[in-house]
Amino acid sequence: MLKKLLLLTCCVFLFQNSFSQRYGNAVGIRLGNNNLSRQVGITFQQRILERTSIEGILQTDFARNSSLSLLLEKHRPIISKRFNYYLGAGISFGKEESFMKNEASKEIVHTYGNNTTGIEAIGGIEFTIANTVLSLDYKPNFNISGREEFFRGQVGFSARTVLVKSKEQKKRQRQRKRAKKQPEKASFGEQVKSIFQKN
Q1: Residue ranges of region Disordered (predicted)?
Q2: Using one digit for the tens of pLDDT, what is the confidence trace for 83-104?
Q3: Which residue from 92, 99, 30, 102 is spatially nearest to 64, judged by alpha carbons?
């Protein structure tokens, strides 16, 4: 039994390492759901450090709520570099609906098109297989201005395609560093001129 369990664990690990890749940046769609609406949007992630990325999320319900979120995220491996959990925070801007209770009349006033600003957090897990990054997250939003409710939370599922793999991104970064370190080579004419100037 122990041998079978060990063999199964090795197979899962080898599967992840042979069919999965880390990414430099990725773009795709995000489906979000909260108690007010279901939203669809575009998500873009860019690695800026070894385990740190920035993410932009633009989403809407095509009716009353639209938002743009900019998040800084820290990634940590769970089983391998292809299966991570991540935590982050950032800022959001939007046009949203709001509900305010009138204490005198006990009525709920519903307003639309409010310009909102908020602080957001995010926590989730992601799995990279081939050129696809799948993630499931929870994104709470804390209102600064524009709506009555202080807190709204959203569960989201994202599917992104890898544009640049991390190996390619690192290779480009190394090439840029080498290019900066190398002194500029003089042209043939300048080399000939320098020979005559020495004599």
Answers
A1: 166-199
A2: 999 999 999 999 999 988 888 8
A3: 99
